[in-house]
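Lab channel / #folding
Pinned by the channel admin:
"Please post every new chain as: sequence first, then the structure tokens as a reply. Keep commentary short and put observations after the output so the thread stays searchable."

First post following the new format, from NK:
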Amino acid sequence: MMKKIIGSIWRKLSPLARLKIVRVTQTKFTASVAAIIENENGEILLLDHVLRPDSGWGIPGGFLGYGEQPAEAIRRELIEETGLELEMVEMIRVRVVNRHIEILFRAKANGVASVKSHEINAARWFKVDKMPEKMNQTQKSIIEKFLKNGL
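Reply from TO:
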């Protein structure tokens, strides 16, 4: 009975009113993109990011802009932060950590990665068995799993 009443009221609301109710009652999320980027030598691009002072090096990435598609966001982030253009961008995994959604890609890039953003301290290519010790351990594990098993 109560479901019928609620359904009847819901149908009488304007689409805009329904949208506002949904947005107010749903938990908010942040969303970002990240990428495991390999070069022609099988090395992985890692960035020493200013905003990660406790974990040091990690895979490139950043937040999505309003209305931005994830693949375009990771391409934009790489150009802004390192000047590199990505090839063969492929989504490999989506994970949720608390209220954050991370969309993980793999891609290829060639060339010298240079620091183009005030958000980055350094950018370097690393062999998988020679990744830095001071690195985000979750990301290190993701890279190792991906390269061994394809995630």
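NK: The longest strand covers residues 87-97.
TO: also worth noting, DSSP finds four helices and seven strands in the chain.
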